[in-house]
Design a protein that fits this description.
It contains 9 helices and 6 strands; from the N terminus they run βααααααβββααββα. The N and C termini lie far apart (57 Å). With 288 residues, it is of the alpha/beta class. Helix content is 37%, strand content 18%. Strand 5 and strand 6 form a beta hairpin.
């Protein structure tokens, strides 16, 4: 395989390696990598992130105008500017959006549902509408422990002269975990973002790391001091070192195997379940 080890470590790549080393290698093989396929959910996520970026940007939405009602104009503007995959900054045109969603009616329904989600989120008592961001949807690259950590962080707020907050927006369902600490066992995203932010803003003695679930208006957050940040940074670098030392890239069967695009060439495919057949009979609904 034409495998090239990464020059920069993104949270998604680190998590993918921990999930399955074989899939990680496929994703970094120029001959095997599956092209990104856009979806309605991905489009909605990008539109919501862009609208929230403008909402919390004081140059676009001054503090007195930060109200849930402002989201209608922002989302409609963002919706028309979501870029097409592999097209640089070129946005979808109306015909492209209709093709993606299936029809103009379905696109409208998704747009209105997204608007309702964002308004509800911004009305939640767990959302701080007075936040003062110092970075919004910005791409960051820093050198930590001899390696480059990189990623696009949704929002970094300045809380005080000695504290910052690092937030990541989620458009999906709430996880079964009830705290950030529970999520850390399986996900290095917040650990990587915290390591990047701590390097970018050395004045911060504490970093609040958290996930904001747009669909539910919920926040899961924790505050880390410098000692904890160093431990999380060490966890990230440990996985990066494991990737560099890896030779076998053996598959690790897991619940996501049925939907893996590399399952047809996976050495462990016979030991993983197949995806549910789309031709399976529909359940018979009750008649009451």
């Amino acid at each position: 395989m034409a495998y090239r080890p990464p020059r920069k470590y993104h949270p998604s790549a680190l998590n993918l390696y921990r999930q399955c080393a074989f899939r990680f290698r496929c994703e970094h093989d120029e001959e095997l990598r599956v092209p990104f396929a856009d979806s309605e959910a991905a489009f909605v996520g990008r539109a919501a992130h862009l609208a929230l970026r403008w909402f919390f940007d004081l140059a676009i939405t001054p503090m007195p105008e930060r109200r849930p009602e402002a989201m209608e104009t922002l989302l409609r503007r963002a919706w028309a500017r979501v870029p097409r995959p592999q097209a640089g900054d070129l946005p979808y045109d109306a015909a492209g959006r209709r093709a993606l969603f299936g029809s103009a009616e379905q696109e409208r329904a998704q747009g209105l549902a997204t608007l309702a989600m964002l308004r509800s989120f911004l009305s939640s008592p767990e959302v701080d509408l007075a936040a003062v961001p110092i970075a919004l949807e910005a791409w960051h690259e820093v050198r930590v422990g001899g390696r480059i950590l990189a990623g696009r962080i949704d929002r970094i707020d300045r809380l005080s002269d000695t504290a910052i907050a690092v937030w990541d927006y989620k458009t999906g369902r709430l996880p079964s975990a009830h705290s950030v600490e529970e999520l850390l066992a399986e996900d290095l995203q917040l650990s990587t973002y915290a390591a990047i932010a701590a390097k970018l803003y050395p004045f911060a003695e504490t970093v609040r790391v958290g996930l904001l679930f747009l669909r539910h208006g919920r926040a899961l957050a924790a505050e880390w001091d410098r000692a904890r940040l160093e431990r999380e940074q060490a966890r990230v670098l440990e996985v990066a070192a494991a990737i560099e030392a890896e030779e076998q890239f053996a598959p690790r069967p897991n619940p996501l195997c049925p939907w893996c695009p590399y399952r047809p060439i996976c050495p462990a495919r016979e030991h993983t379940p197949a995806a549910p057949s789309p031709d399976a009979p529909a359940p018979e609904e009750v008649d009451w």
